[in-house]
């Protein structure tokens, strides 16, 4: 689907799940930033191989937006916050609201193998929309940005660490247990892409494993609405 944006840009996004089902409550909405180069082909791959199995199993709706005109969600690759593709997120949310997909209890924002800049940028352009953020950091994660994240003025954040990844993040979060900021750690028994030989496992296979653990965590902690009979 495509959202028209004033100024000549547009925002394409993939959606999977059954938002048209009549239930007592709306299904949980998860907005997942794309992996790879964040282009449309990356969105198609992520939807087909990572999020569609979760939508079918859990009855949730997953939305994956593509970057626009080669400008990524990672604002560090442009000239600053608010100048990346995240500036188009309010238009995406407006389109989802027209489709009656936004949940008054808030949605979940997920970023697989991001630097952290993408999710922080999205949160700045869409305050109050997300009830929780899940970040599975890439090998190039911006640790200083994560350290400075102020969850007291935004949603709580869960950082997902696979086997053998990011000892600095692990140690820092472990030391700040009980401190304000509400950043928690979720360890999963899956090797991240930068620790895995691509000849052994594809990005999609690793992503599907990550997604399953992340969605188990979301289901256990946020009283997700599952489909009725």
Could you characterize what this model shows?
By secondary structure, this protein is α/β, with parallel strands linked by helices. It has an 8-stranded mixed beta sheet, sandwiched between helices. Helix 1 packs across helix 6 (203-221). The chain has one domain (2-221): Alpha/Beta hydrolase fold, catalytic domain (Rossmann fold, 3-Layer(aba) Sandwich). The protein is built from 6 helices and 8 strands; from the N terminus they run E-E-E-H-E-H-E-H-E-H-E-H-E-H.
CATH architecture: 3-Layer(aba) Sandwich
Inertia-based shape: globular
Remind me, CATH topology? Rossmann fold
User: What letter string, H or E per element, gives the SSE order?
Assistant: EEEHEHEHEHEHEH
Level-1 CATH class name: Alpha Beta
How many H/I helices? 6
Strand content: 15-25%
The residue ranges in which pLDDT falls below 50 over 5 or more consecutive positions are 77-82, 224-229
Radius of gyration: 17 Å
Could you give the count of β-strands?
8
Counting helices, strands and paired strands, the structural category is alpha/beta
Provide the helix percentage.
25-40%
Distance from N terminus to C terminus (CA atoms, Å) equals 29 Å
Strand line-up across the major sheet: 1-2-4-3-5-6-7-8
Task: Quote the average pLDDT.
Answer: 81
Q: Give a short account of the largest sheet.
A: 8 strands, mixed
| CATH homologous superfamily grouping | Alpha/Beta hydrolase fold, catalytic domain
Query: How many structural domains are formed by the residues?
Result: 1
């Amino acid at each position: 689907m495509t959202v028209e944006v004033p100024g000549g840009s547009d925002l394409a996004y993939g959606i999977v799940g059954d938002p048209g089902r009549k239930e007592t409550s709306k299904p949980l909405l998860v907005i997942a930033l794309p992996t790879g180069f964040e282009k449309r082909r990356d969105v198609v791959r992520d939807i087909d191989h990572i999020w569609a199995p979760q939508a079918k199993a859990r009855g949730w709706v997953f939305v994956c937006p593509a970057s626009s005109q080669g400008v990524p969600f990672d604002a560090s690759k442009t000239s600053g916050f608010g100048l990346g593709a995240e500036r188009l997120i309010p238009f995406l949310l407006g389109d989802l609201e027209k489709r009656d997909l936004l949940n008054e209890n808030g949605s979940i924002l997920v970023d697989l193998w991001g630097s952290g800049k993408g999710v922080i940028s999205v949160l700045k352009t869409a305050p109050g929309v997300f009830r929780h953020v899940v970040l599975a950091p890439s090998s190039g994660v911006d640790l200083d940005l994560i350290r400075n994240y102020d969850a007291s003025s935004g949603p709580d954040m869960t950082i997902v660490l696979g086997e053998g990844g990011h000892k600095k993040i692990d140690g820092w979060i472990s030391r700040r247990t009980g401190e304000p900021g509400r950043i928690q750690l979720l360890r999963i028994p899956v090797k991240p892409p930068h620790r895995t030989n691509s000849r052994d496992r594809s990005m999609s296979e690793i992503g599907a494993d990550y997604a399953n653990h992340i969605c188990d965590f979301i289901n256990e902690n946020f009283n997700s609405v599952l489909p009725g009979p």
